[in-house]
Amino acid sequence: MLRVQGLKAWYGEAQVLFGVDLEVKEGEAVTLVGRNGAGKTTTLKSIIGLHRSVQGQIQLNGHDLSPLPPHLRARLGLGWVPEDRGIYASLSVEENLILPPVVGPEPWSLERIYSLFPRLKERRRHPGSKLSGGEQQMLAIARVLRMGASILLLDEPTEGLAPLLVQQIGTLLSEVKAHGISVLLVEQNLRFASQVADRHYLLSQGQVVEVLDNSQIALKERELLQHLGI
Ligand SMILES: Nc1ncnc2c1ncn2[C@@H]1O[C@H](COP(=O)(O)OP(=O)(O)OP(=O)(O)O)[C@@H](O)[C@H]1O
User: Fold this and answer.
1) pLDDT digits (tens, 9 = 90+) for 99-146
2) Pick from 50, 55, 45, 62: nearest CA to 184
3) pTM of this structure
4) Whose alpha carbon is nearest atom 16 of ligand 1?
5) If we measure between CA atoms, which residue out of 169, 90, 107 comes closest to residue 133?
6) N or C: the chain end with fewer CB closer than 10 Å?
7) How far is the CA of 3 from the centre of ligand 1 (A)?
8) CA distances from 196 to 49, 82, 97, 185 (A)
9) ipTM of the complex in this document
10) Which domains does the chain have, with CATH numbers?
């Protein structure tokens, strides 16, 4: 469904991606792992269309995304969950959910959102500013589902969260995946990555150097942690 081939990217004169190839099939979750500066965020931003100095092919369900601005990519089903979560602090949970327009091909009703996210239903009248980090992350994920995304792109969703919340976000993403939504996430937490995802692209210096499944992640955990500098 999402296919990236030969993705190259630059900041000014400096090339930072050198031909990234990756694929996310329907209902599949994959991660991009790699040490700081490997090019994970640039890869996500290039797919979304927020980084434009790129070459290569980016296709979603056979559509060529390369010439399209971000809002037209969203219409085809890309759902970006930014690292800062982008929650409106003064609006309630429900207002945060219904404010953005439905643009994608598979919008979720509020009812469906609340059945998967009972915590958000309980907190629906609370302002964004009163939510915990984990609740904000849930709201950011719920919002892109409401907008109609068929694939979620997340940049380090567990960053700064306590272990229990990391566990909850993992369970939630697994459930999202079970609803047929694809997931591409940047993640440094290997345990979390293998809880949520089926495959893992190891990025180093702007290139995919290995594609690992969960059994390989378990076998090579120590080596990988060393590589990631954790
Ligand atoms: N706005 C920018 N201007 C110039 N260079 C940048 C910019 N953003 C990122 N880079 C460089 O591009 C390379 C890839 O950065 P990127 O943020 O994609 O890596 P990353 O794997 O997501 O790392 P991190 O986990 O630190 O965000 C790095 O060398 C980084 O210094």
Assistant:
1) 988 998 889 999 999 999 999 999 999 999 999 988 999 999 999 999
2) 45
3) 0.92
4) 39
5) 169
6) C
7) 22
8) 25, 18, 24, 10
9) 0.95
10) 2-228 (3.40.50.300)
